[in-house]
Amino acid sequence: MDTLKDIMTTGVETCKPEDTVYDAAVKMKNTHVGAIPIVQDQNLMGMITDRDIVVRCIAEKQANSAPVSDIMSENLITAEPSMSVDEAARMMAEKQIRRLPVVENQKLVGIVALGDLAVGRTTADEASFALSEISERPEVHH
User: Fold this and answer.
1) pTM exceeding the 0.85 threshold for the entire prediction
2) H or E element at residue 49
3) Which residues pair with 36 in a beta bridge?
4) Which domain holds residue 17?
5) pLDDT in tens, 101-124
């Protein structure tokens, strides 16, 4: 059985809580990702997504010089490297999350995105299920 350690992305680009929203946006652009973990001394403090920047910064008319700590999500669902890929897929579907930070002893060691589940050999069904559960209901699309 595959574990998250087998499929997670390591060497994840991060920001510090005092980094600006602009800094996070530039890192997202340069690394082609939609989320950046916020860490202090390798400890996971939160996560900022491209959606957070739009909804909590731009739409609230905050300056792009605001610290990421002002708009990051703090109550994160996390996993450990030893968690099975199947269990992670179920959890991501149940909790409606697309990116799962992987921590060991409170320190960020990697991240698993929904797309990582689809790449796994035995997880195509789980990835499909997770995606269908995480995707927005049709009636909320405009």
Assistant:
1) no
2) strand 43-49
3) 48
4) 4-140
5) 999 998 999 999 988 887 654 444
